[in-house]
Write a structure and sequence with these properties.
Length: 308
């Protein structure tokens, strides 16, 4: 039951005050107590009737007025009047955008997976007459229509599509709910799927599947890298095959870089030593002396061993 507006209450107080004053004048001026009381009660009755006829609607409200059981008009926003005892306001319709949350619990998808889905509906009343006369309780009807539409969509959708295509699910839901609520004068602004919950066991299995897929991709990338490296080595081998000097410089650089590390023994094939002309004692001595000067130490920390 809607309370009396502040303006109607002000009118009631003003008319009631006038009735009190007139009743007091009747009692004092004419000495009639009964007449004074009659004037007082008449003033209060008039104040109540007039204040009941005055209504004020907010900017977002529409009043559905019936006259003797028949639809009379939509009133508001602002100040308007009705005829007491003849006109009745059966609904005050809120025309702002309203949010309604709804969910579907333990609903089977197309591939028989039970899921819990939470969603939010944004809607507004565009035809107050239909909302008041075409359905008994339009807010409850919208909530139930949203839940049934959500269950229908879940039953027709694969789990993978539901997890990856929430925007698509929201669009389908909005279209289905609009078809059901349009005769009630309700416009669906948007539908948002907030969360999709799946059983914990299935969630763990999907996590393991995703991990295995990532490992597979990593192995494929590693194999592709090895193939590219082998191709590059093949190209380098062709270059060294026709350029012995380049091969000699590369071998010298590899041996030098190896001796610079912390390892104490470097195994070098004897063929490589022969290629670099380090097979003699003088070559090895020259190389170790160069490393001493580079490291700044008086004692070499590596030894070169030729392996047959």
């Amino acid at each position: 039951m809607r309370m009396m507006s502040s303006f109607a209450a002000l009118v009631f107080c003003a008319l009631a005050a006038v009735g009190v004053v007139l009743g007091y004048v009747m009692y004092v001026g004419y000495g009639s107590f009964v007449g004074g009381m009659m004037v007082l009660w008449a003033g209060l009755a008039v104040a109540w009737i007039v204040s009941s006829a005055i209504k004020v609607a907010s900017p977002w409200e529409r009043a559905v007025v019936l006259r003797l059981g028949k639809f009379r008009a939509l009133r508001g926003p602002g100040l308007f009047g009705i005829i007491p005892f003849i006109d009745t306001i059966v609904y005050w319709i809120d025309t702002r955008v309203i949010t309604t949350s709804f969910k579907a619990e333990k609903t089977l998808t197309k591939d028989t997976v039970p899921v819990d889905v939470d969603a939010v509906l944004f809607w507004k009343v565009t035809d107050s007459k239909k909302a008041a006369l075409e359905v008994a309780d339009y807010m409850s009807a919208i909530s139930w229509a949203s839940q049934t539409a959500l269950r229908d969509v879940i039953g027709k959708t694969q789990l993978a599509d539901m997890l990856e295509g929430r925007d698509k699910i929201s669009t389908v839901l909005q279209r289905m709910i609009e078809q059901r609520t349009e005769p009630w004068g309700v416009n669906v602004v948007a539908v948002e799927v907030r969360d999709v919950l799946i059983p914990s066991g299935l969630e763990n299995a999907m996590s393991m599947q995703a991990q295995a897929e990532r490992e597979r991709q990593a192995r494929v990338i590693l194999g592709e890298s090895e193939r590219q490296i082998a191709a590059q080595f093949g190209e380098a081998a062709k270059t060294y095959e026709h350029d012995p000097i380049a091969l000699h410089l590369r071998a010298m650089n590899m041996l030098y870089e190896g001796l610079k590390q912390n390892s104490t023994i470097v195994l070098v094939p004897s063929s490589a030593i022969d290629t670099m002309q380090l097979g003699g004692l003088s070559g090895i001595t020259a190389l170790t002396m160069g490393l001493q000067d580079a490291n700044g130490h008086g004692k070499p920390k590596e030894a070169v061993v030729g392996a047959q």
